[in-house]
Write a structure and sequence with these properties.
By secondary structure, this protein is mainly beta. It is about 10% helix and about 20% strand. It is built from 3 helices and 10 strands.
């Protein structure tokens, strides 16, 4: 099977790990969405056998999977046993551990609207966005962190403090590594 990726993701993040990982049926109801099975190991993880690039923005990654094995079997009836069924495979894009990034995210509300400003204070430091530091979106065009604004979170107990010291600021601005998983059944056409 060849996974075709189009876009600048792998150019912007060239150390992104791309691999296939075996899925598992959700318990106790196998008609629910499948989940990743365990961690990375030789039996349930497949790394690309080859990689090819086509300019300007297409990457091809070849895996030792056929389409039926990758797609797996979807169980619609929750009373059906999953024994002997193939849950299929996920394709994963993951930031490499140890490649530390610092920064904030752009604010997007629960409806996916990125044109609005946040209201109130963030619940956690992970919820802090650039927009929490300014009065309007246009202020972000030339914004640099100045510490002129005091920032707090809903539950500050045992948490780093904004503008206290460099260690606290590093903890607040640390960006957790991203892992994106998409099941092959969602990408392959129906038979």
């Amino acid at each position: 099977m060849v996974l075709v990726m189009r876009g600048d993701l792998l150019k912007k993040y060239p150390n992104t790990m791309v691999y296939a990982q075996q899925a598992a049926y959700s318990s106790p109801d196998p008609s629910q969405p499948r989940k990743l099975k365990g961690g990375i190991d030789a039996t349930q993880t497949k790394f690309p056998l080859f990689k090819a690039e086509i300019d300007p923005d297409i990457t091809l990654l070849g895996f030792d999977l056929d389409k039926d094995e990758a797609r797996g079997e979807r169980i619609e009836n929750s009373t059906t046993s999953t024994v002997g069924k193939n849950p299929g495979w996920f394709f994963i894009m993951k930031e490499r551990p140890g490649q530390v990034r610092f920064g904030l995210d752009d604010f997007v509300n629960e409806q996916g609207d990125d044109t609005v400003m946040p209201t109130g204070i963030p619940s956690t430091w992970d919820d802090l966005s650039w927009e929490h530091l300014v009065s309007s979106k246009t202020d972000l065009l030339n914004y640099h962190i100045s510490f002129s604004k005091t920032v707090t979170i809903t539950n500050p107990a045992n948490q780093p403090v904004w503008n206290m010291n460099s260690a606290d600021m590093a903890a607040i601005l640390y960006q957790s590594p991203v892992l994106f998983a998409r099941h092959a059944a969602e990408m392959l056409p129906e038979n």
